Every structure is written in structure tokens, then in C-alpha cells.
Amino acid sequence: MIKQENIEQLFKVIDTGASIYSIAKEVSYLDGIALICEGILNQEAALGLDFEKSQQINRLIKECSAINYQKEEIRKAMQLAILKGLKASGRSNEQITPDTLGIFIAYLVQKLIPENRPLVLFDPLAGTGNLLVTVMNQLAQSLTAILVEADEQIAKIARVFLAMLEYNDDIYCQDTLTFKHIEADIMITDFSFPKTTEETMFPYQVFDHHKENLRDDALVIAVIPDAFFDPEHQERFKKELLGAYRAIGLIRLPQDLFSRRHKSILILKKGPNIREEKPAFLMADIPSFADQDAFQPVLEKINQWFRESTLQKG
Fold this sequence. Notes:
Blueprint: H1 4-24, H2 29-42, H3 51-65, H4 71-88, H5 99-112, E1 119-123, H6 130-138, E2 143-148, H7 152-164, E3 168-172, E4 184-190, H8 197-200, H9 202-210, E5 214-225, H10 234-241, E6 245-252, E7 263-270, E8 282-285, H11 292-308
Parallel strand pairs: 1-2, 1-4, 2-3, 4-5, 6-8
Antiparallel strand pairs: 5-7, 6-7
Helix pairs in contact: 1-2, 1-3, 1-4, 2-7, 4-6, 5-6
């Protein structure tokens, strides 16, 4: 069982350590998070601190090592610290996908792929890594994570985030459209809201480029702004996307998850359409995750779709 006191205690350690490092080394709070997490992992304070500050950090590390944290306790404590760091740096909290959404995506993965199958999970727009970590914490099978993030500071946060959870991972700091030569079983990602018309087209570029990084029959679960589905893009959608992928489903998400506009979950499968597979397409509209009376009928509809589906899971 997750203990709130453990989350609060670990957050206090990370928060205090990040603050000490940010002042002593004149770095941002986000960089301080990376330094204190590296200290926890290495069981010693970083070089370059005076004796008093080193002692403070080592006491924090000792306090932290006395508790056997569950993965979700670590994730939630890290999330609190990262949110504080993003706010302090003037960055958008869109870098962190809501927990509820990550847990729901994990449910979709469990329905689509057998539990006994090892998986390579890939997020080409990883941000802090919270989405992939949330999903991985819900899955039982052997997992390998591959993350790509263009922002060096955020990539560093993602790296220590996964290291704190002892996941087998590779994190690459580069433009996602230059990343090649992997074979993932499933691509999971959350697209930011577009700021320009050109950015509305960005998901097409991502899907097209990364089809080469997915195994045959690999799945894609993408959280995508509804602008992607504007009627003016329909022909391009059919021509450029459905030539490489089969569209499996579209789940519209509650507006209260996001501060502005709407997003949906698009589910794709790499490979051509197979007419014998059924049902043809999953369509659902989630009014709210918080309102269980409204959510349960939609969840039952989705479960019924999976019961009837002949979509290959192996």
C-alpha cells in the first residue's frame, strides 16, 4: 500500500537537497533535483560543496536510504518536486501528463498486450518521463524504456527520474525526428498543444518518422490535440498515416484534464488494414474520470469492444 507519509518524506529530502544545491552551486532548482537524485543513487554528496553543505546532503541521503519506497511513492514525490521546478523556471506543466491519463493508458496496454510478454516502450517526446513511468508502474511484465527529449535540462530530469525507479532505460537528448535504429513494441506519447498551423502537422511527421523504429504489428497510443483531426487534414490523415498504420481507436478525453482545448487518445497498429479483424474501430467519449457514474458506462463499452475484438495480441 502506498503511504502518503513516505511520499511527503521523500519529497522533503529531494526538495531540501535541490534547494541546497541550487544555492550552493548557483544552478536552477531543476538542476538541483538532478544533483540530489544523483546523490541518493550514488549514496554521497556531489563534489564542490563545502563541508557543512556536504554534511547536510549526506544526512538527507542517509534519511532517504532508511526507507524502502514503493515505485509509486518515488514517482509521486519526484512529480511534486518536478512540478515545483517547472513553476520556478517559468516552464509549462504540460511537460507532465496527468496521472489519471497515464493510468488509463496502462489499462489500454494491458488490454492490448499479454502480461507475459516483455516489452520495449518508446516515448519520442518524453518530457520529464512521467507518462512512461506512470504506465510502467502499472505493468507486470519485463520492461525496457527508450525515451527521446530534445531539451537537455528536461532530459537530465527524465534520466534521474527513471534511475530512481531502477528501470532499464535509454534516454537520448536529441531532436526526435533524427532518432533512429530501435525496434519498439509500443510507442506512447503526449503531444503538446500546437502554437502554429505548422505545429498542427507535427504529429504526422512523428508518426511517419518513427514507423521505422517500431516492430511489425507494434502499437501506438498517442495523446493528441483535437486540432489534428480538423476536416482540412482528413485527406492527409488517410494518405500519409493509414498507409503505414491501421487505425484501432479514438477516445475523446475529458476537458477538465487540460487547462485549454481538448485532447484525445489515438490508437494505431503498425501495418496494413486487415478486413477480417473486428470490431472495425473503437470510439468512446469519456465525460470525466472523477465522476464514476459517468465513467463506468464508457469503461464497460471499451471493455466490451476488447471482448469482441479479434485484434492480435501476440
